[in-house]
């Protein structure tokens, strides 16, 4: 177990392994082929992430002359290969080009930077102006997007099940938030702490989308990855924070397995102890808190979650109860014994997580 300020060797993807595993067993090679290659690529990148952590990642300093609290984005094109970062195709301040994928990645990095800066006063992912790098057009029909501890990487999807992974801005925000977690609480990527790691990324990914669209909690769809599934798929997104377990129900993908409460908590040895599945429980708790408070979810509800993540009190192996208890404490510290505190307490109670 590393300490705060270290780097847990985590490789985080937006599409859960259980989804790709199911696709990889499909009889149609148009579905199984890309899924198998994506799983193999994920395994290689996961190993690379561990080695980078052991050897030590190369430090990247903010560019000379960079103004404080301004993004520094660089987009690279892998040209359907796997060497990272690839060829630089757009730098900070450059005008949009003809490649919509490049433009979406650039905008998504900016939207994430802006939400963290404007809502929480955080200067980039590490709080100190970390440059934001992303690679697009990664590999052939790669069915995933990931944060590898240093940069974002986006596949184009296979066109059969998944479309371009830069389409949903919440996917970009989700993956970059893994970087925020890496530089703050550094939640261990296993069991309930891993599910919290995933949930925090879903929470702030959704908030980034809501902030970009100017939506209130009641106007938001609370879906993660809406627009990512191809037309042939019976589903709306990868996950639903409003109604976990309802994002898709498809003959190829199967049924969304996420639980909404502890009554249906999934005990499994796969996916690091079900980190992408059981994240539905804290996701739903946040949805309940945000909608109970109303208004813009990134304000009061988001502030409480941000305080809990970044305040230095959240342990790396925290379970749901520990995180819930900390959100109650941060709500009380920031807002007193009023409606925010009551909403936080009730939200966790409704999903069956006890607070101390």
Count of helical stretches:
10
Structural class call reads alpha+beta
Q: Characterize the largest beta sheet: strand count, sense, and whether it forms a barrel.
A: 6 strands, mixed
Could you estimate the helical fraction of the residues in percent? 40-55%
Indicate the proportion of strand residues.
5-15%
DSSP strand count: 10
- Average pLDDT metric: 91
Radius of gyration: 19 Å
Low-pLDDT runs: 1-9, 51-67
What string gives the helices and strands in order? EHHEEHEEEHHEEEEHHHHH
Distance between termini? 25 Å
Shape: globular
Strand order of the largest sheet: 1-5-6-4-2-3
Kindly summarize this structure in a few lines:
By secondary structure, this protein is of the alpha+beta class. It has 10 helices and 10 strands.
Task: Characterize the structure shown.
The relative contact order is 0.12. The protein starts with 11 loop residues before the first strand and ends in a 6-residue tail after the last helix. It has 356 residues and is of the alpha+beta class. Helix 3 crosses helix 4. A hairpin with a 3-residue loop joins strand 9 and strand 10. The chain has a 6-stranded mixed β-sheet with strand order 1-5-6-4-2-3, with helices on one face. The N terminus is likely disordered. 42% of the residues lie in helices and 9% in strands.
């Amino acid at each position: 177990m590393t300490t705060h300020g270290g780097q847990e060797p985590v490789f985080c993807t937006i599409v859960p392994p259980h989804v790709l595993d199911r696709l990889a067993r499909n009889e149609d090679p148009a579905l199984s082929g890309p899924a198998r290659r994506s799983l193999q690529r994920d395994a290689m990148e996961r190993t690379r992430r561990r080695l980078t952590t052991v050897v030590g990642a190369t430090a990247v300093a903010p560019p000379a002359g960079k103004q404080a609290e301004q993004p520094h984005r660089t987009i690279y094109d892998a040209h359907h290969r796997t060497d990272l970062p690839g060829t630089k195709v757009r730098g900070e301040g450059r005008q949009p080009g003809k490649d919509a994928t490049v433009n979406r990645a650039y905008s998504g990095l900016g939207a994430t930077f802006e939400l963290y800066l404007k809502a929480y006063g955080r200067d980039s992912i590490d709080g100190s102006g970390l440059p934001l790098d992303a690679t697009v057009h990664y590999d052939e029909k790669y069915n995933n997007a990931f944060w590898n501890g240093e940069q974002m990487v986006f596949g184009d999807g296979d066109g059969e099940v998944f479309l371009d992974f830069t389409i949903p801005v919440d996917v970009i925000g989700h993956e970059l938030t893994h970087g925020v977690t890496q530089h703050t609480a550094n939640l261990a990527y296993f069991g309930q702490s891993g599910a919290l790691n995933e949930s925090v990324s879903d929470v702030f990914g959704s908030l980034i989308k809501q902030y970009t669209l100017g939506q209130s909690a009641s106007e938001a769809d609370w879906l993660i990855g809406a627009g990512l599934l191809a037309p042939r798929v019976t589903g709306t997104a990868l996950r639903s924070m409003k109604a976990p377990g309802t994002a898709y129900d498809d003959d190829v993908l199967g049924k969304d397995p996420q639980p909404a409460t502890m009554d249906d908590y999934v005990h499994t040895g796969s996916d690091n102890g079900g980190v992408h599945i059981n994240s539905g429980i804290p996701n739903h708790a946040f949805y309940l808190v945000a909608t109970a408070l109303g208004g813009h979810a990134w304000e009061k509800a988001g502030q409480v979650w941000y305080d809990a993540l970044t305040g230095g009190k959240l342990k790396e192996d925290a379970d749901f109860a520990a995180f819930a208890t900390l959100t109650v404490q941060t709500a009380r510290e920031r807002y007193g014994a009023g409606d925010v505190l009551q909403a936080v307490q009730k939200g966790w109670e409704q999903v069956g997580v006890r607070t101390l």
